[in-house]
């Protein structure tokens, strides 16, 4: 299946379960002072969960553009260094607003993954909340019971509050969750260490793909939990990770969501992409030039998505707030292509037309504004490349004696 077919299949599956498909909310969250960017599919439905607004329908599904680069969920520093983290990613989700609950949510997750996408059952694991006596939330035996109808007990793992109690931010709707993980290791490795020992242990081949949250509480500003009048379902499946698993890859950058972008960067830089990753958390300056250029290509392929879609959703790069976050992501991409791909001219903006075409059916807002978006990015790149080059010239002019820069130079006014 292509990525496009995988996305369509998800939406069609939930249409067949009487869900209404809605468009992604903008990636910039202008209406909620507690959240700068949309970080989960459920953000746009916050008021439905809290009961302060009533939805037209009680079952919804969509694919949501999300950005996790600030606040409670921040993945920025991982991006490029590993094969599964992104700034912008798509979250496939289905929601029940006071309608179906754990039984249906779990049964449909299983049906979609194993019968429609045909993911191998013996490689799937589910985690369930072990409970928190301090918060007065019991262990989720109900979810465990439903999972035990389809999974052997050693594939159902208890998880703590960090992994199995999902919260949107410091305040807001929240509740226990059950995550679905997949073990993508070769059989030889699986025979040595069973997958259940590696779930939620940062193994790059044993990864979470779907989170089913059972929203039951509102976290209040004083930290206490208030029970909500209704019980809801809020699920989030990482589209890029799902695609990786279905396409039999190990890294999202090897799926057709990213390969066209990486090929474009290869051609523009004249450098081959080798798909290498650093094997330790060392600084990038200590890595070989081929790992550096691989990281840089992934950074560029990732960051252009975050920057383009955020601008298309109305947030210009700027000096404060959300605008500054976007400017920083854009500048991070420029630093990487300038330093590790030997590209010295504005380049990111050239990827916009390809990106707009790739997403024309699902997020047409980029295609509709592709020229303006590319122009804005090009202007930012030009300005930052000037700053970068001036800075580097000044560095080159500074005298370094025995590895030391004089205080007068380092702190020049
Ligand atoms: N709201 C579910 C998730 O983001 O994992």
Structural class: alpha+beta
Distance between the termini: 58 Å
Number of strands: 13
- Assembly of the depicted chains: single chain
The total of helices stands at 14
How many domain modules?
2
Mean pLDDT: 94
Identify every distinct bound molecule in the structure, by name, code or SMILES: glycine
Shape: globular
Helix content: 25-40%
What does this protein structure show overall?
This protein is of the alpha+beta class and 413 residues long. It folds into two domains: 3-247, Bira Bifunctional Protein, Domain 2 (BirA Bifunctional Protein, domain 2); 258-397, no CATH class. The protein is built from 14 helices and 13 strands. The protein has helices at 3-16, 46-50, 102-116, 141-148, 161-164, 187-192, 239-246, 259-269, 289-312, 321-340, 352-358, 364-368, 370-397, 407-410, and strands at 20-21, 59-67, 69-70, 73-74, 88-97, 124-129, 156-159, 165-167, 172-183, 206-219, 225-238, 400-401, 404-405. Strand 1, helix 2 and strand 2 form a beta-alpha-beta unit. Helix 3 packs parallel to helix 4 (141-148), helix 8 crosses helix 9 and helix 9 (289-312) crosses helix 13.
